[in-house]
Design a protein that fits this description.
The chain has 237 residues and is mostly beta strands. The protein is built from no helices and 20 strands. The chain has a single domain, classed as Jelly Rolls, CATH 2.60.120.10. InterPro entries: Pirin, Pirin_N_dom, Quercetinase_C, RmlC-like_jellyroll, RmlC_Cupin_sf.
């Protein structure tokens, strides 16, 4: 097993007043040649948006874009005619394909919204743009990994144009959990949302991440109550 540790304080940071964002990989004004991507995982932004503020209408092409609210609600609108409110516990996905225009705003005029913005490089180009959104039962992630994304329309969670699987899990302190890869040629990028865990000789705290390759299973020792996002993705790109 090979690992690369990305501590929370090593991320890029931009505070625009209305937006406070931490970048796990090079994005906008943050450029680090050693942090361009992890396999097909191109962007992982941890965004906090002020009340009633947000991202005005803008476009994307040929990218799978996943949004996961951690606290608060987002208001979504796009040029497919879709309007939606995305809440904590929801998973949103857009296949940008040939091109999609959208906006994302904090739905509240009182409280900030914190959400993850994730970009995955697709395995198909110029597909018809699409949007999907699901809600996750909080009990489904208790002391187990719940699949929230896959390449397959029939599976649990949303689906994207890539051989990727995402899982969320919330685990009690002093437990051990294993994640088995769906594809032996993939890698895993584990992002610790809350808590403290050990993976091998590495100790991870809140918002730390680790990229893992050359293994079929990841053993995680939970030191204190923790919430994890596991992104299994192709790495040989």
């Amino acid at each position: 097993m090979e690992t690369v540790l990305h501590t929370a304080d090593s991320r890029g940071h931009a505070n625009h007043g209305w937006l406070d964002s931490h970048h796990s990989f090079s994005f906008a004004g943050y450029f680090n040649p050693d942090r361009m991507n992890f396999g097909v995982l191109r962007v992982l932004n941890d965004d906090i948006v002020s009340p009633s503020m947000g991202f005005g209408t803008h476009g994307h092409q040929n990218m799978e874009i996943v949004s996961i609210p951690l606290e608060g609600d987002l208001k979504h609108k796009d040029d497919t005619g879709r309007e939606a409110i995305i809440k904590e516990g929801d998973i949103q996905v857009m296949s940008a394909g040939t091109g999609i225009q959208h906006s994302e705003f904090n739905y509240s005029n009182e409280n900030p919204v914190n959400f993850l913005q994730i970009w995955i490089i697709p395995n198909q180009q110029n597909v018809t743009p699409r949007y999907d959104q699901i809600s996750i039962d909080p009990s489904s992630t208790k002391n187990k990994f719940q699949q929230i994304l896959s390449p397959n329309k029939e599976d649990d969670g949303v689906w994207i144009y890539q051989e990727a699987w995402f899982h969320l899990g919330e685990f009690d302190a002093d437990t051990t959990v294993a994640y088995t890869l769906r594809n032996k040629n993939n890698g895993v990028y584990l992002f610790l949302l809350e808590g403290q865990v050990n993976i091998g000789d590495l100790s991870l705290s809140r918002r730390d991440a680790v990229g893992i390759t050359k293994t079929h299973e990841v053993q995680i020792r939970v030191k204190e109550s923790s919430k994890l996002l596991i992104m299994e993705i192709p790495v040989n790109v």
